[in-house]
Amino acid sequence: MILRPNQLAAHLERTLAPVYVIHGDEPLLAMEAGDTIRAAARKAGCDEREVLVAEKGFDWDAFRATNANLGLFGSRKLIDLRIPSGKPGVDGARALEASVAGIPNPDSILLVTLPKLDRATQSSGWFMTLADAGIAIAVFALERSELPAWIAARLARQRQRANAETLAFLTDRCEGNLFAAQQEIAKLGLLLPEGEIPYDAVERAVTDVARYDISQLSEAWLAGDAARALRIIAALEAEGEGLPLLVWQIGEDLHALAAVRDATAAGTPPAVAIRNARVWGRRQEAMEQAAKRIATAALTPMLRALSRLDAESKGIGMGNAWDDLRALALALAGHPAVPLQK
Fold this sequence. Notes:
alpha/beta, Rossmann fold, Zinc Finger, Delta Prime, domain 3, two-stranded parallel ribbon, 17 helices
């Protein structure tokens, strides 16, 4: 069975499976899911816990022995196995499959924690065997659209609530950094009373702890979210991100947008044109919005500005490359601050 992290608590109130597998790339959610399972195991009588970390050179015979042995004084135990690489190897795969084959040890619960896995690994025999024997929990980074509800749920735990404007503000400040977001939410629980928390009090209390990457910037300027694009550029500049990478990304997006516009004008369906332009993931929807919003004629001055920006990023020319990147980002987002040079 496959569960999302927000379904885990309700499941554990009903039953405790013999096997749990946590995998994904969101460390806070993975840690909290593991803590929830460990607490449920203790409540169910697992008084003993053995932690094994399967790093390079790990002796899988130790895992086999742990899985076969009874707990001290006949008590139930939790086997807490972490595989940081996500690759148990041939011997490890056999040991994992054997641990749940036939009739598993009724006196033990197996918890396996893994990083984000590729599709091939999720389709492997050992992973499918574990998932079929128990519960698999995927802990992936939250989409931006999911953050307001996630923040509202965390506030509700401390008997606080916020309106949509306050939730949007918190989303902007905490995007991409759930550990820091949780710390800021906990701080609000200490500083502000229960009930509705006012926007101005939240604004004074919360630090900007958002973390961004280049794909989020691409999505922002293609989707026409100028304010978010400028906020991400400022954050990346402050973090010391190299300008050439940002210039490369906006160049890729402009050339892809031009290709999509040409293809759709020739009768190609937008979805096909976007795939042919090698635009993937969340950026596909943003690219479709940009293709509807930006006329082909408007791309010419943007491409000229890109040429100048590329030269400036390499130390050629007299302009300020970061300022010109912001100007081009605004133009691509549909909110030009000043007309681009012809």
